[in-house]
Automatic annotation (TrEMBL):
Source organism of the structure: Aeromicrobium chenweiae
Keyword 4Fe-4S: no
InterPro entries the UniProt entry points to: AAA+_ATPase (IPR003593), ABC_transporter-like_ATP-bd (IPR003439), ABC_transporter-like_CS (IPR017871), P-loop_NTPase (IPR027417)
Pfam families per the UniProt record, alphabetical: ABC_tran (PF00005)
Keywords of this entry: ATP-binding, Nucleotide-binding, Transport
Protein name: Histidinol phosphatase
Transport found in the keyword field: yes
One Gene Ontology term of the molecular function aspect: ATP binding
Length: 255
């Protein structure tokens, strides 16, 4: 399989504290990869490093074989879309305008939106169940609605790689399932930071588990998410039962 996004020996620190330690991983065309780990394990930092939002202290990120640091911001934005945990705007933008931000990398500077842009915005809004919100102000939306609008903005961007940091935050159960089903069905390569192990087991082709900023396990969820690993990384006792496609995880008690 073709490697689309690769990380080699990434390291990043803040105020003398190392957050990401020698992390290496790769993603293949069209697959959905989960980044798992407890709070403070480095998931959000890794997503930002993969997106080029933070420079690596050492190591490098390759996009289709090229170091992302050598790509212009516009070229990178045509390839990589990012949805962070808390997306907010200090501007009074309409929802349609927020989703339309995803089209900016695809047209000349200061050029107005085209018919194709507007069609892509409407498509993305439909995919994320926010069509009825297009005429509303972004600031009036609930947390779940804002999250879906930001994902629509990322889809409107037509990326090769989609990076999502806890995308199910603020979403009810139905929208969590719909969102991850949508992510999995798209032809893009997706890297998704998740807390919910069952969602990861259901929707991810492979997972990488972080602990203390390091990758401690990687591979298909059915082989990685064992009771022993969950105990070691999360400090809880869990029952892991095999399913026809994946595993089911039931957390029983803290250790």
């Amino acid at each position: 399989m073709t490697a689309i996004l690769q990380a080699h020996d990434l390291r990043w620190s803040v105020r003398g504290r190392t957050i990401i330690r020698d992390v290496s991983m790769s993603t293949h065309a069209g697959e959905t990869v989960g980044v798992l780990g407890p709070n403070g394990s480095g998931k959000s930092t890794l997503i930002r490093l993969l997106a080029g939002l933070r420079p690596c202290e050492s190591g490098q990120v390759l996009l289709e074989g090229r170091p992302i640091g050598r790509l212009s911001k516009r070229a990178l934005a045509r390839k990589v879309a990012v949805v962070e945990q808390e997306a907010s705007s200090s501007l009074e933008l309409g929802v349609e305008d927020v989703i339309g931000l995803g089209r900016i990398p695809h047209r000349p500077a200061w050029a107005p939106a085209t018919t194709a842009d507007r069609e892509r915005v409407a498509w993305a809004a439909g995919q994320t169940d926010v069509l009825e919100c297009l005429d509303r102000s972004y600031s009036t939306l609930s947390g779940g609605e804002r999250q879906r609008v930001q994902i629509a903005r990322a889809l409107a961007q037509e990326p090769t790689v989609l990076l999502l940091d806890e995308p199910t935050n603020h979403l009810d159960i139905r929208h969590q399932l719909e969102l991850l089903s949508l992510v999995r069905s798209t032809p893009v390569t997706s890297v998704v930071a998740l807390h919910d192990l069952n969602l990861a087991a259901t929707y991810c082709d492979r997972v990488f588990v972080l602990a203390g900023g390091r990758v401690v396990a990687g591979g298909p969820p059915s082989t990685v998410l064992t009771a022993e690993l969950i105990a070691d990384v999360y400090g809880v006792r869990a029952r892991v039962e095999p399913l026809e496609h994946g595993v089911s995880i039931r957390v029983i008690e803290p250790l």
